[in-house]
Amino acid sequence: MEAEVISPAHHIGPHTPPTLILHGTADTTVPYASVVAFESEMKKAGRPCKLVGYEGAEHTFFRRAEYYDKTLAEADAFLVDLGWIKK
After folding, report:
1. Residue closest to 20 by CA, chosen among 32, 38, 2, 4
2. Does residue 13 lie within any of the structural domains?
3. pLDDT confidence of 1, banded at 50, 70, 90?
4. Looking at the domain assignment, is residue 2 inside a domain?
5. Which of 18, 21, 26, 45 has the greatest number of C-beta atoms within 10 Å?
6. What is the dihedral of CA 39, 23, 31, 63, to 10 degrees?
7. Domain containing residue 34
8. In a domain, 52, yes or no
9. pTM of the predicted model, to two decimals?
10. Could you give the number of structural domains in the chain?
11. Residues ≥6 apart with Cβ < 8 Å to 22
């Protein structure tokens, strides 16, 4: 199936890097269900993954000023949790 060939959720393994997903629940370009599936597969594989959903937000929502501080704080917290940066 061609969809599986390009689907990130079908290529998770020990090489897959830690992943933070900041995603709008109203995204019609990349459906929210697809990132939920990716997060689930990452957790099954024991890979670090955090999904943060933004209710009602669409694809590129993070470009809007109201989300800037929220998404930046999530990224910082994710990197702190990994031990890659200090708080």
Report:
1. 38
2. no
3. low
4. no
5. 21
6. -150
7. 19-82
8. yes
9. 0.86
10. 1
11. 52, 54, 62, 71, 74, 75
Amino acid identity for residue 52 in this structure: V
DSSP string across the chain: -HHHHH-GGGS-STTPPPEEEEEETT-TTTTHHHHHHHHHHHHHTT--EEEEEETT--TTGGGSHHHHHHHHHHHHHHHHHHTSS--
How far, in Å, CA of 54 to CA of 11, rounded? 25
| Residue 32: inside a domain | yes
Q: For residue 10, what are its two tokens?
A: 């079908």
Name residue, tokens 């990994």.
82
Which pLDDT score is estimated for 72?
Answer: 94
Phi-psi region of 59 (alpha: psi -120 to 50; beta: other; left: phi over 0): beta
Beta bridge partners of 21: 51
- For residue 54, the one-letter residue type is Y
Write the single-letter amino acid at 27: D
